[in-house]
Each structure stands twice: as structure tokens, then as C-alpha cells.
From TrEMBL:
<protein>
    <submittedName>
        <fullName>Succinylglutamate desuccinylase/aspartoacylase</fullName>
    </submittedName>
</protein>
<keyword id="KW-0862">Zinc</keyword>
<dbReference type="InterPro" id="IPR055438">
    <property type="entry name" value="AstE_AspA_cat"/>
</dbReference>
<dbReference type="Pfam" id="PF24827">
    <property type="entry name" value="AstE_AspA_cat"/>
</dbReference>
<keyword id="KW-0479">Metal-binding</keyword>
<dbReference type="InterPro" id="IPR053138">
    <property type="entry name" value="N-alpha-Ac-DABA_deacetylase"/>
</dbReference>
<dbReference type="GO" id="GO:0016788">
    <property type="term" value="F:hydrolase activity, acting on ester bonds"/>
</dbReference>
<keyword id="KW-0378">Hydrolase</keyword>
<dbReference type="GO" id="GO:0016811">
    <property type="term" value="F:hydrolase activity, acting on carbon-nitrogen (but not peptide) bonds, in linear amides"/>
</dbReference>
<dbReference type="InterPro" id="IPR043795">
    <property type="entry name" value="N-alpha-Ac-DABA-like"/>
</dbReference>
<feature type="domain" description="Succinylglutamate desuccinylase/Aspartoacylase catalytic">
    <location>
        <begin position="46"/>
        <end position="225"/>
    </location>
</feature>
<dbReference type="GO" id="GO:0046872">
    <property type="term" value="F:metal ion binding"/>
</dbReference>
Length: 342
């Protein structure tokens, strides 16, 4: 395939919405592999925002978000352009698996890609040069990998003020800060001056509609923040926790093989010293407890309840005193809605 040329968003006339298919590769049969893209070019001038889903082919919540985003915004009221790349990793999506099924390549480690490299890098290059490069800001939707689930949160390098602005305006309670992997879309776009956040929401292979609704509110808030929807409110969540230090998060791992039983209650808040889960052998002769090393929120748990030593069981982030007080208040008032495993 030839070198991709940046998409000219003004080739969709102002005031129009177009659904396109853009070839990024070919199958073994030589047939085109095409990504579905919606471009909504507002009647009024403004920035260009991209949104991507299914860079990992089995992470579906974002696909549902973008189906709704593409349908709901009217170019007559939009100031700027919204670009939805509905399914980035088409071969992975067709196989309903995370990686591109050819040598299990990870599309989200392949940006910005090159046209003379492997399949994933070529696809990444077609998507990046064509659609991402000309944008001003971006949101990339993911879920947990299969057999795990994750609390709704944003990943962003908030040390960069423009990224902080984006992460804040998306309005998730929890932000995990830091650089992503070098070849991820978030890292590369942000480095190229296009502030980009990753949204992690729930499980693979599911549409979790309450999470989809929250993400749609987040999108609307971002569009308001950047002036694409002037006059709409920017939404701020109740409690917020930005986790910046490595010591404030931990993957708790199994030290023994066996059957995993989660011990925490309804809400994902645990206190230092609480038993989060146990790992027992099949004869119930031996039991290991996994204990919370600090007070915090369980933001990810395994769903496949068997483990070998070293297996990640749950992801814990610490909460500061102020956040803890607010979360405790929300729990007591019945307002706390985080249920990452439901
Ligand atoms: Zn992912």
C-alpha cells in the first residue's frame, strides 16, 4: 500500500456527517481490511477530536460508546470536528481477540508505525498518518484484558498540563497517571502534541451499559471543555483521585497455586490489613491470604478463579485521607456506585 496521506477533514463539508470505510491492510485473500470511520464536521469552526475503540479487538465497551457518539451529535450544532474510529483492530475484532491474529501482534504497541514494517505497524501507520495526525485532542477506549475486570478510570500523563485538562474534563473519579508503553496510541499522539487519554472501562467481550453511559457523559464534557459544544456544562465528578506514584498502586499476586476466593464486601474499598482474597489448595489443607498492604480501592480483579504463583489477583490503588472520607460518606449515603466486578 502507498504511504497514507493525512485525511483532510474539510473534505467532509462543514455541516455534514459521513460514514466512511478506509482500507488499512489486506486479508490473505487480497481483499481489503477496512476500518469504519465516522466524521462529523460541524457547521462552525473548532478543534478536531478523535476517538478510537477496539485497538484491542475484544474490548467492546468503547465500540458501543462510539456507535452512540457517531449517532448522537449533529453537525449543525458542532463547533469543530469529531472523528470516530469505530474499530481500529479489524482482524482482532473479527476474531474477537485482543491481538491481531497474525503472529499475535499488539496494535497498541505499534504506533506510529511504518509502511515497511510488520503487519501491525503498517496498520498503525495507516490509521495514525491518515486520521490521528491532523487532530487536536483524542480519547482511546479500552477495557480490561479478558478474565479480568477494571474499575472505570482514565490513564493519562497528567504531568503535561494539556493532558491534565483533558483528563479532568472527562470527569472520571480515578486517574492513573504516567506515560504509557512507547508504541501506544496515547504515548505517541501525546508526544506529537495531540493530548490523548486512555479510558479503561470494565470487561472485554461485554457491553456494560452503565459504563457506556458514563463514558458518553465524559465525551460530552470533553467536547464542552474544548468548545466543540459551546454552552454545555463541563462535568466534574464528586471525589477524584489522581494516582501518580508507583508506591500508591500495587498488583497483588498469588504466592501459591490454587482456588481463588475473593473476601472483600460489596464495595471495592479495603483497609490496610484486610484480607482481600484467599488461595486454597483443592484439599482445603493449605490456605494463603492476600492482605491489603494499604488502605485503598480495588480497581481490578481477576475473574478466572484459579491461580498459579505470580498470577495477578487484584490491582489496588491507595486513597488519601480526604478521598477516603468522601468515599466513606458516599458509601454510607448509598451513592457509591463503583462495582468493578459486577
Ligand atoms: Zn486495551
Amino acid at each position: 500500500m502507498s504511504d497514507p496521506k493525512p485525511f483532510r477533514y474539510d473534505s467532509v463539508p462543514p455541516g455534514e456527517k459521513r460514514h466512511l470505510r478506509y482500507e488499512i491492510s489486506e486479508t490473505y485473500l487480497g481483499d481489503p481490511v477496512e476500518v469504519p470511520v465516522t466524521v462529523i464536521n460541524g457547521e462552525h469552526e473548532g478543534p478536531t477530536a478523535f476517538m478510537t475503540a477496539a485497538l484491542h479487538g475484544d474490548e467492546l465497551n468503547g465500540v458501543k460508546v462510539l456507535q452512540e457518539v457517531a449517532a448522537r451529535y449533529d453537525p449543525a450544532t458542532l463547533h469543530g470536528t469529531v472523528v470516530c474510529i469505530h474499530v481500529a483492530n479489524v482482524p482482532g475484532y473479527l476474531a474477537q481477540q485482543r491481538y491481531i491474529p497474525i503472529y499475535d501482534l499488539d496494535l497498541n504497541r505499534s504506533f506510529p508505525g511504518r509502511n515497511s514494517a510488520n503487519t501491525a505497524e503498517r496498520m498503525a501507520n495507516q490509521i495514525y498518518e491518515r486520521f490521528i495526525g491532523p487532530c487536536d485532542v483524542g480519547i482511546d477506549f479500552h477495557t480490561s484484558t479478558r478474565n479480568r475486570t477494571t474499575m472505570y478510570h482514565v490513564r493519562a500523563d497528567v504531568a503535561k498540563p494539556e493532558v491534565y485538562r483533558l483528563a479532568r474534563s472527562f470527569g472520571s473519579n480515578l486517574v492513573l497517571s504516567g506515560e504509557a508503553d512507547p508504541g501506544s496510541l496515547r504515548t505517541v499522539a501525546t508526544r506529537d502534541g495531540i493530548p490523548t487519554i486512555t479510558v479503561e472501562m470494565g470487561r472485554a467481550h461485554r457491553f456494560q451499559l452503565p459504563l457506556v453511559e458514563r463514558a458518553l457523559e465524559g465525551v460530552e464534557s470533553v467536547l464542552a471543555e474544548y468548545g466543540l459544544l459551546p454552552g454545555r456544562p463541563v462535568v466534574w465528578p464528586g471525589w477524584t483521585r489522581v494516582v501518580e506514584n508507583a508506591s500508591d498502586k500495587a498488583w497483588l499476586r498469588a504466592d501459591a497455586g490454587g482456588l481463588v476466593e475473593m473476601q472483600y464486601g460489596e464495595v471495592p474499598l479495603v483497609y490496610e490489613g484486610d484480607t482481600i482474597c484467599t488461595v486454597s489448595d483443592h484439599f482445603k489443607k493449605r490456605e494463603h491470604s492476600v492482605v491489603a498492604p494499604f488502605t485503598g480501592l480495588i480497581i481490578g480483579v481477576l475473574q478466572n478463579p484459579v491461580a498459579a504463583p505470580g498470577h495477578p489477583l487484584c490491582h489496588l490503588v491507595s486513597v488519601d485521607k480526604k478521598t477516603l472520607t468522601e468515599i466513606e460518606r458516599e458509601i454510607a449515603a448509598g451513592e457509591f456506585s463503583e462495582r468493578p466486578w459486577s
